[in-house]
Write a structure and sequence with these properties.
This protein has 6 helices and 11 strands. It has about 240 residues and is an alpha/beta fold. Helix 3 runs parallel beside helix 4.
């Protein structure tokens, strides 16, 4: 319900209960002031190609189903006086900070602080990260740096409430903690990250490059990295203004 443009949040609480208790799923939202808020749900649904189960359990347990009573005969009908309904409370008597009843489901959605950049650089080498950051900045491109694949996955999926959104990830392949191969697999699983991922490797063997491509990077560039290679990638994905070159 709403009063003077202020909602109680009951609809959100009901949605949370339906998703989590009814479907054993997850509900959350990403807020990006002043652009708005995006709500999402994650539930597991049966495949429509699966055959239906042999028997479908009733929605209501039999023990809770009450037998229908026979209608009373006209001779046994006794008129019962009906009390008039109580008067509706005046608006001034209804507190504006009315809380939900105790049995209402708690409403605690997962929230994020969102930061937007053009490129996320993932490389375990401090000098490489610094070089790429300066290079991108000189081209008018904003970036965020990560020192391993785990940090990149955490930032791009909002772990810890800090979500980084970008259009392009420059992903080194050989890194400690989590390498670029595994990080790309995780970002591409269930379409968690739908932006572009370009792999970076110091190994130019075809088998290594092919392996990287198989997990979801769109192309692979080899070290050493120079401005020409980065400029080509940025132009390819619409992140570089050719008039600046």
């Amino acid at each position: 319900g709403r009063s003077q443009g202020i909602g109680t949040g009951l609809g959100l609480a009901l949605s949370k209960g339906l998703v989590e208790k009814g479907f054993k799923g997850k509900i959350g939202f990403i807020s990006s002031p002043p652009f708005g808020t995006t709500f999402f749900i994650d539930v597991s649904l049966p495949n429509h190609n699966d055959p239906p189960p042999a028997s479908t359990p009733p929605l209501v347990p039999p023990s809770l189903i009450l037998p229908l009573a026979s209608p009373p005969s006209p001779a046994s009908t006794v008129p019962v006086p009906i009390a008039p309904p109580p008067p509706a409370p005046s608006p001034s008597s209804v507190p504006r900070n009315t809380t939900l009843p105790e049995e209402s489901p708690e409403f605690e959605l997962e929230t994020y602080q969102t930061r937007w950049v053009d490129v996320v650089v993932v490389d375990d080498g401090p000098m490489n990260r610094s070089l790429l950051a300066r290079m991108l900045s000189s081209m008018g491109v904003t970036c965020e740096t990560c020192e391993n694949g785990q940090e990149a996955v955490d930032k791009l999926t909002g772990v810890g409430g800090q979500l980084v959104r970008c259009r392009l990830v420059l992903m080194d392949k050989e890194m400690p903690v989590m390498d670029g191969y595994v990080a790309t697999q995780q970002l591409r699983s269930n379409h968690i990250f739908k932006g572009h991922i370009v792999g970076i490797t110091g190994n130019a063997l075809d088998a290594q490059i092919s392996e990287f491509l198989d997990v979801g990077v769109e192309e692979v560039i080899t070290k050493p990295i120079n401005r020409d290679k980065i400029e080509k990638i940025l132009r390819q994905y619409g992140l570089f203004d050719t008039s600046m070159s």
